[in-house]
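Final report, closing paragraph on structural work. Over the funding period we assembled a curated collection of sequence-structure pairs, and we close with a single example.
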Amino acid sequence: MHEFSAACSIVDTALEAAKSNNAIKVNVVNIEIGEFTFLIPEQLAFNFEIASKNTIAEGAELRIKNIKGKLLCSDCGFEGESRVDPDIPPQIAVFAPMKCPKCGSSSTTITGGKDFIITNIEAEIPDSTI
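Its predicted structure, as stored:
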């Protein structure tokens, strides 16, 4: 359900941008999703198709760029990209504390990768010449 809500937001924003620019068709929506949004790209794309039905965004391509999460370790001072612990099963990894890839501490703070951004929208605008 998380992906459907996100897909609806994408469609609403794309349609609003299209309307304000007098677009007649949305062709592509480019987004960036951070690792810690826990959005699954395949499910997001599927739900985007459903949410865009019967709109000028129907059939638009959803291009997704995944952004790695970033952590700050309060024990060793490491600041950088997170790494998935291979010992934690994927179905519970989202609930596990993020361990520092340098020292293994769980005293970390997420500093990046929670973003969910529409970077641009490609649309058709009618020729204004008469």
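Residues 2-20 form the longest helix (19 residues). Helices lie at 2-20, 41-51, 90-93. We thank the funder for supporting this effort.
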